[in-house]
Backbone:
C-alpha cells in the first residue's frame, strides 16, 4: 500500500497515513544547526556535532519505535480527551492527519474533534535554532476550549555519555524558566558556555522542566500525567531528566485560528559574560534572537528564505523527461538527498546514531558526485584539501577524519586501498564542475603536519604511485584492509566475537605476506578511471613526464585486468590471500560480484574486445532481481574468515547477497558506456525510490530517498530496504542519471552532451547552470536511438562536437540536440 | 509512604505497591550467569560479562522508566482484558500484587479477575540459565480460560554495539524454534559458539520471535498486538529485533493450579559441533539442561539449594541486638549487598549500564571488608593477587583491570595515589579473616609481566615506599590524579567540555610541577592505618628492617598530619597546586570535608592530644544532617578547575555537598575509635536503608540496600538517594557496624571483642564463624557504658584480654562478654 504521495508542485512528499512502516524522516537545517524529524514528530536536533552537542534526546531502536521528539499534546475541555496532532506519541485516532516533508522543512497537521493543529518546522538560514510555527484552528461550529502542551526532552549534550554515564549525568540537570522561555543549563555552570532554550511566543499557563513530573512515574510519552490532568506542575528539574513543556490555554470561536511560534535552539555567551548575577543566565544576547523569531512575520520571512535557497540550489539542474518518477527524483529529492548526505556524512539518520563522528574518505568523495554542482564551490574545495591533508607521504590515507579538528582518525588508521584514488576522482569532479584548475596548486599537508606539505597535484601523483607500488602477484592493486566493500576482508583472520574484521592501523598483516597477496579488481577498474582523469590534469599542466607515467600505468592495469581478471563470462572480484579467485565460476558460492563490474564498466575496460558487454550480460542474468542488483551470488551460507565480515551476514542482507544500491548506479553507468539505454533505465528504475512507492509495505523505507541496502532474494524479507538517507547511492544514482542516462556531463573544457536513453524516448529537456552560464537543453530523439548525437546547435549555431562551450557570460543559452 | 516491608523470617523484602518511586531491583545468580530484576519484572541477564555477553536487552533511563524485562501477559477470555502479573508493562490495576525479593531469587505475584499468576525467578548454582517457576491459579468460583504469553527481547550480545551499530546489528537477528524452545542464534553462524534460549515446559499454542510482529508497529511493551489479539503470529525473526514469546492456552477449574517452568539461558557448543545439519543448531547438549530444569521437581530442588547456600553464606555472621533494623541489615541485606558488590564490581545496576567493564583497584579492596568472611577464601586470595599483578615496579598501580583478561586497563592508567595502600589493606583484611599468612609469599607479577615478579610481601613494601617517595611540600602524600574522591582533581585544568577531569595515564602533569604539589590528608590518614597493618606483617615475618622503616614512616606521617593538617577546629582535606589549603576555615566554600576525617579518625591520629575528638565534633556540627553526613560544606557554587569535577556538580549532589554514604561508615568507625557509641549509632542510623524505609517517597531507592549518594541540604531534592546497590558503602557500613559498633573484629591472632555501643543497650548476641570455629557471643552491658570490656569467658573459662583464640577445631564456643 501507499502511505502518501509526491506533491511535485510544492516539492513535498505528503504522508496521510501516520503509521508508516518505518519512521519516514526529513532533515532540518543546512549549516550548523540540524534536526532530524519523522512524519510523526520524532527525532532530535544538534549543533554542528550530533554526538558532542546534541540538544534533545532520542533513544534509537526504541519501543515504541520512534519514541521521543517534538511533541504537542491537546487536552480538549469538551471531550476530556488527550491527543497529539502528529499522531505519535498518543496514537489517538485523528480526523485529519497530514505530514508534508519539504526541502528543509516539515509540516505536520492533525485534527480531532474540530481542533486542527498544524505546525511547520524549519531552521532559518544563519541561525542556530528551529522554529515551530503552529496554527490552531477551530474547524467546527461551536466554541472550543482546550490546553495545548508542548514537550521536548533535553539531552545532556554529549549523546553517548548522556545515555551511558548515568551515575554522573542523572545529577547534572539544571534549568531556568523565564516567562515563556525554558533554558536548559546542564553543565553551563562549569565548562560549557552554551545552553539550549525552548520558547513560546504566547503567555503560558504553566510549564514543566522535569520529565518525571511531566510524564508521571512509569508513564510513557503517550500518557503524560500533566496532560491528562490538564495542568502543568511548574516543575523545576534538579538532576534526572530535564525537559521543556509549556501549557497554553486556548479558546477559539468557530473558524478562528490562533498562530503561535515555538523556538528550540542553541545559544552561547562569551566566557566572561555567562552570568548576569551569580548563578543567573545572562540572557541579553539570546533575547535578540528570541524576540525576532517568536514574531510570526519574521519567522515567515525566514521560512520564505529557506524555500528560496533550496529552489536556487536544486534549480541548477532541472529536467523534463517522459519518465515522471525520474523527474521527481532528479529535480527535487535526489539532489536534496545528495546535499543532506554531504552535510551529514554518515552521522545522523534513523539508522546512524550520530555518535560515530568521522567523515569517511571514500564517502566524502563519492558524495561530491551528487553535491558538487549544488554546493558553493568553496565548500567542495575546502573538503578536498582537508582530505588531501590526511594523506601520508607514502600515499596511504586515513580512512576518516573528524569534522571538528580535521585530523585523520588514528584509531581507524590507513590501509583501505581505494581511498587514494578517491582523492583523484574528487578533485576531477570539482575541476570539471567549476573549471577551477587552481586547486591543483594549493598546498596541502601530509598527515596533518604543517611542516610537510605539497601541492594537491603532487598529492595526486603520490596517489597514483602508491597504488602502482602496492600491487600483488597479478600486478593488480592490493586490496589492503578493504576496498569499497568494507566487508570483503581478505587479510584478517577474525575468529573471536567482537574482534575487528578489517584489522587495525597497526596490524602486522598489512606488512606481512598475507597483506601483500590479496588483490582487488574493483580498485583495478577504479584505477583505470581515476588515472585517466589524472592524465587529463597532467596534460593541462603540460607535465609530460607524469602524463606518460600515468598512461603507461593505465595501460598496464588494463592489461592485467584483461589477462588475470577475466573468468570466462565475467570478471572476477578479487584474489584472496592464497592467490585464489574470489567471484569466479570456480567458487561454489560468491561466483559473481557486482562491484568489480561496476568499476571495470565505468572505466570501459574490455569494451573493445567484447568482454565488457558479455560480463554485463552475466551481471544481468545472475545478479539482477526485481528489486535491484544483488551484490553477489550465490550468497555465502557459512562464515568464512578468509573472506571476512561479508560472510558474517545471513544470506540476502548487506554485503552477503543484499542489494547494495550503490553498485546499481555504477552498473547503470556501465550499461550507458556500452550504449544500452534501455537496460540502464531498467537498472535505474529498479531501485528508484519513487518507483518503489507503490510497494511501501515491502520496501518500508521512505519512497523519496535512496536506502543503502534492499534485502536480496535469499532473504525472507526480499525487497525490504534498510538504512535510508545517508548512502553513497544518492550520489551514484545522480551521477548515473544526470551524466550517463541524460548525458549532461561536466568536462574539463565544458559541458558534454552524450545521452544514453531508452529507445522509446522522444527526447527530454534539461535546464542546467554550469559555471557561470545557464543552458536550456532540448534533446530530441527522432530515430529512437539510445545513444549518439547527430547535431548540436547552441543559440542557433551548429556546434562542432558535443561539448558546450564554457561561456562564462552569466547568460542563458539555448541548446538543441538531435540524437541519431 | 512505604511500598512494602521486611519479612525477617523469610529474609525477603515484600513490595505490595508496584509503582515504587524507582525500580527496586534484585540480583539473580552468583557465579557466571547473572540477572538484574526489578519489582515489576524489568531488567536483563548476562553471562560473565554484562557488556560482551548480554542475553536480553535493556534500555537504560528509558521512557517509561524500567521498560523491558521478563514479561508475562494474560489475555483473559472472559473479560477480554490484557494484563501483566508484574503490573508493568501493561500497568492494568491488579487485585493482588506482591513482589518478594529474596537472596538470589524474586517472586512476583499478580492477580486479576480470579486469575493469580505467581512466578519465582532464580539462577540454579552451577548453571547458566535462569528459571521462572510460574504457578497459575483460578482463585474464583467459575471456570477460567485464558492465554498466557511470555516475552523477552534478545540482545545482540555486545550491549553497546547492540545499541549503537544499527546499520550492522539490525541485519543479524536469527532464531530457530523447536517445539517449545526458542533459540536466539544471532552471530552463531559466524564467530560465536554460544547461543541463548527461552524455553517453556508446556506445549505451546504459538510463538513469536520478531519484536515488531509481537508488539505491532509503533506499539509499546504495554500493548502487544499479539496479546490483544489473543493469538501468536508464529513470526520468525529475520534481522531487526529478535524476541522470544510463547503462548499457552490455559483452562482452570475453580481452585485449580497449573504449574509450569520457563527457562532463559546461555549455552555453548564445541567449535566443531555447532551444527547438526547445515545451518541447524546442534541441540544435543542443551537438551540435557532443558530436560532437567523444565521439570518442576528438579527446579524446586535447585531452588532449595540456592536458599541453603545463601543461608550458609550469610549464616557466618548473625546478630541479635536491641535495634531490629540493624539486625535486619546485618543478618541479611547488608551481607547480601556486600556479596553482590563483590560479584558485580561497579558493572551492572539500575545506574551502572554494564558497559564499563573494569574492576576498580580501590573498589575491589573496599568490597573485601564486607565480603571476605563470606566468600570462599580462594576467591579473595585470587583477587588480591590479581590486584598485585597490575602494580608497577615503582609501586604505582593501574586503577582498573578487566575481568576477562586480568590486565591493567592502560587507557585509564595509573596515578590514583590511594590505590597502592589499598593493596595493603586488602591483604590485611584477608589475613585477619583467614589466618592465611602464606599469601604474603605468593609470587605476583608487576604490570602483568610474567618475567617480572616478586612476592606479595615485596609488593606491599613497594607500596609503602611509593607513597613515601611521592610526598609534597608538607611531607604529606601527593594526591596524584585523585584519591578516593575521584572528583577532587587537583592537577588537571579541565576547561573544554567533555575533557577528562583527572588527566590521563600519560598526562605530563603527573610528572611536572603541578603534580608534585597537591597533597591529600585522606591518603595521609589511610597511610597511617595501612602501614600500621604492614608493620604487623613485618613483625610476623620478623623482618625488622622493614618493620622499622614502616614505624618511622608512620611516625613521620602522623607528625605531618598534626603539624600541617590541623586547621584549628578540624583537619584540612588537601593542599592544592599552589600549596593552599582545601577544606579550611580560610576557604569561602568547601571549608570542611568528611573524607580526611574519616581516614584520620579510622587511623586514630590526633586522639592523644584531643584534636581528633574536636575535629569529629566539627564534623557533626557542620556536616551531619538528618539524612547523613555531607561530603563537604559549604558546597561550591561555581566551577573551579583548580578543584576539578567535584565543583562541576550542582550544590548538594555527588561530591559537591552530597551525602556520599561511604564516609558515613568511616566516621562511624572514627566515633567508635574515640569511644562515642551513641554518636556512632546516630551516624549508622542516618543512612541505614531499613531506617529510611518510612520515607521512601523522599529516599526513593530500595529500603534494603545502601545507595552511593543521598542529596544533601543544598539540593532541592535533599534526602533523595541515587545509585543504589553497587557502592563501597555496603562494605564500609558492614565494617563499621560489625567490627566497630558490635566490635567483633578479626585480628591476626584471633577474634577481638571490642564493642562501642549506645549506652542504652543492655547487650547483644553474635553468632560468628571465624576460620574453623563458631563463636556464640553474648555481650552484656550492665553498667550501660559505650566502650570497655570488663571480662570475657570462653566455654566457661575466663580469658586474659579480649582476643578469642583461633581454635581451629571446627566446634562451637560459648563466649560471655561483660562490658563495663
Residues:
Amino acid at each position: 500500500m501507499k502511505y502518501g504521495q509526491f506533491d511535485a508542485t510544492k516539492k513535498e512528499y505528503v504522508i496521510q497515513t501516520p503509521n508508516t512502516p518505518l519512521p519516514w524522516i526529513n532533515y532540518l537545517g543546512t549549516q550548523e544547526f540540524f534536526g532530524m524529524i519523522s512524519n510523526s514528530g520524532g527525532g532530535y536536533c544538534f549543533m554542528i556535532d550530533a554526538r558532542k552537542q546534541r540538544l534533545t534526546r532520542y533513544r534509537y531502536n526504541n519501543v515504541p519505535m520512534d519514541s521521543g521528539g517534538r511533541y504537542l499534546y491537546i487536552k480538549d475541555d469538551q471531550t476530556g480527551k488527550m491527543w497529539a496532532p502528529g499522531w505519535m506519541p498518543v496514537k489517538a485516532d485523528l480526523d485529519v492527519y497530514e505530514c508534508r516533508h519539504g526541502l528543509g522543512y516539515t509540516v505536520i497537521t492533525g485534527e480531532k474533534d474540530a481542533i486542527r493543529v498544524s505546525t511547520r518546522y524549519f531552521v532559518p538560514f544563519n541561525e542556530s535554532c528551529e522554529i515551530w510555527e503552529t496554527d490552531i484552528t477551530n474547524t467546527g461550529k461551536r466554541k472550543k476550549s482546550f490546553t495545548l502542551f508542548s514537550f521536548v526532552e533535553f539531552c545532556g549534550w554529549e549523546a553517548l555519555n548522556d545515555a551511558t554515564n548515568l551515575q554522573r549525568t542523572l545529577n547534572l540537570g539544571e534549568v531556568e524558566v523565564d516567562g515563556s522561555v525554558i533554558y536548559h543549563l546542564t553543565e553551563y555552570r562549569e565548562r560549557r558556555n552554551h545552553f539550549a532554550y525552548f520558547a513560546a511566543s504566547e503567555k503560558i499557563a504553566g510549564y514543566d522542566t522535569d520529565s518525571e513530573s511531566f510524564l508521571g512515574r512509569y508513564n510513557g510519552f503517550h500518557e503524560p500525567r500533566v496532560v491528562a490532568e490538564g495542568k502543568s506542575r511548574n516543575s523545576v528539574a534538579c538532576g534526572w531528566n530535564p525537559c521543556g513543556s509549556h501549557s497554553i490555554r486556548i479558546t477559539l470561536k468557530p473558524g478562528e485560528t490562533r498562530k503561535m511560534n515555538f523556538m528550540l535552539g542553541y545559544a552561547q555567551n562569551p566566557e566572561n559574560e555567562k552570568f548576569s548575577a551569580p548563578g543567573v543566565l545572562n540572557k541579553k544576547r539570546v533575547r535578540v534572537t528570541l524576540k525576532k523569531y517568536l514574531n510570526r512575520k519574521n519567522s515567515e520571512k525566514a521560512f520564505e528564505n529557506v524555500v528560496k535557497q533550496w529552489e536556487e540550489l536544486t534549480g541548477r539542474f532541472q529536467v523534463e523527461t517522459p519518465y515522471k518518477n525520474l523527474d521527481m527524483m532528479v529535480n527535487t529529492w535526489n539532489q536534496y538527498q545528495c546535499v543532506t548526505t554531504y552535510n551529514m556524512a554518515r552521522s545522523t539518520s534513523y539508522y546512524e546514531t550520530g555518535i560515530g563522528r568521522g567523515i569517511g574518505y571514500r564517502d566524502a568523495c563519492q558524495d561530491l558526485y551528487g553535491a558538487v554542482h549544488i554546493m558553493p564551490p568553496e565548500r567542495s574545495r575546502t573538503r578536498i584539501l582537508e582530505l588531501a591533508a590526511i594523506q601520508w607521504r607514502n600515499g596511504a590515507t586515513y580512512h576518516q577524519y573528524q569534522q571538528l579538528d580535521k585530523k585523520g582518525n588514528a584509531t581507524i588508521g590507513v590501509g583501505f586501498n581505494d581511498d587514494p584514488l578517491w582523492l583523484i576522482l574528487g578533485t576531477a569532479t570539482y575541476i570539471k564542475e567549476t573549471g577551477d584548475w587552481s586547486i591543483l596548486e594549493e598546498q596541502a599537508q601530509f598527515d596533518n603536519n604543517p611542516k610537510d606539505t605539497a601541492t594537491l597535484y603532487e598529492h595526486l601523483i603520490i596517489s597514483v604511485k602508491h597504488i602502482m607500488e602496492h600491487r600483488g602477484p597479478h600486478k593488480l592493486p592490493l586490496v589492503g584492509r578493504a576496498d569499497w566493500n568494507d566487508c570483503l576482508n581478505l587479510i584478517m583472520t577474525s575468529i573471536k566475537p567482537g574482534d575487528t574484521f578489517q584489522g587495525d592501523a597497526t596490524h602486522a598483516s598489512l606488512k606481512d605476506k598475507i597483506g601483500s597477496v590479496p588483490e582487488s579488481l574493483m580498485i583495478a577498474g577504479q584505477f583505470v578511471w581515476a588515472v585517466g582523469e589524472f592524465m587529463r590534469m597532467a596534460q593541462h599542466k603540460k607535465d609530460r613526464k607524469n602524463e606518460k607515467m600515468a598512461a603507461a600505468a593505465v595501460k598496464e592495469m588494463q592489461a592485467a585486468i584483461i589477462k588475470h581478471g577475466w573468468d570466462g563470462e565475467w570478471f572476477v572480484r578479487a584474489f584472496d590471500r592464497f592467490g585464489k579467485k574470489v567471484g569466479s565460476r570456480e567458487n561454489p558460492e560468491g561466483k559473481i560480484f557486482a562491484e568489480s563490474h561496476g568499476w571495470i564498466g565505468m572505466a570501459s575496460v574490455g569494451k573493445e574486445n567484447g568482454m565488457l558487454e558479455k560480463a554485463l550480460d552475466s551481471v544481468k542474468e545472475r545478479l539482477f532481481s526485481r528489486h535491484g542488483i544483488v551484490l553477489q551470488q550465490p550468497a555465502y551460507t557459512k562464515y568464512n574468515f578468509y573472506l571476512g565480515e561479508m560472510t558474517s551476514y545471513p544470506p540476502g542482507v548487506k554485503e552477503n547477497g543484499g542489494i547494495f544500491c550503490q553498485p546499481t548506479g555504477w552498473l547503470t553507468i556501465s550499461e550507458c558506456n556500452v550504449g544500452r539505454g534501455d537496460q540502464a533505465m531498467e537498472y535505474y528504475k529498479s531501485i528508484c525510490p519513487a518507483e518503489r512507492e507503490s510497494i511501501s509495505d515491502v520496501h518500508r523505507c521512505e519512497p523519496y530517498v535512496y536506502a543503502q541496502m534492499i534485502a536480496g532474494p535469499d532473504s525472507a524479507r526480499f525487497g525490504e530496504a534498510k538504512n535510508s538517507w545517508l548512502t553513497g547511492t544518492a550520489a551514484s544514482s545522480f551521477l548515473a542519471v544526470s551524466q550517463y542516462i541524460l548525458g549532461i556531463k561536466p568536462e574539463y573544457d565544458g559541458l558534454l552532451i552524450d545521452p544514453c536513453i531508452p529507445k522509446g524516448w522522444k527526447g527530454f529537456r534539461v535546464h542546467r547552470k554550469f559555471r557561470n552560464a545557464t543552458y536550456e537543453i532540448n534533446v530530441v530523439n527522432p530515430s529512437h536511438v539510445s545513444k549518439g548525437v547527430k547535431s548540436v546547435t547552441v543559440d542557433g549555431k551548429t556546434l562542432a562536437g558535443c561539448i558546450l562551450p564554457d561561456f562564462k557570460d552569466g547568460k542563458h543559452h539555448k541548446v538543441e540536440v538531435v540524437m541519431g
